[in-house]
Amino acid sequence: MKIKEQMNQKERDKKMKSNSKNELVKLMSICGQVAEHKSEKMQEKKVDESMILAGLSLEEQEQLKILLNKLQSHWLEQHNMHHNK
Description:
Elements (H helix, E strand, L loop, with lengths): L2 H13 L7 H22 L13 H26 L2
């Protein structure tokens, strides 16, 4: 790896972190940051963003989508309950 690439990687590593003590929350947070970064870069290069999920089968992608939608709905419900008190 070139020196400039190593420096860029170190900067990305510093930015992509989570302070959560829960392993799953930390993993979700970091994955979200990585996905956002990759998405931006792929859009700049006009590359298909679906490649971000290439490590998952179509079935796994659908399962992930279902789980994330379920969490999002739960969080939105909690948020609305909090603000309607």
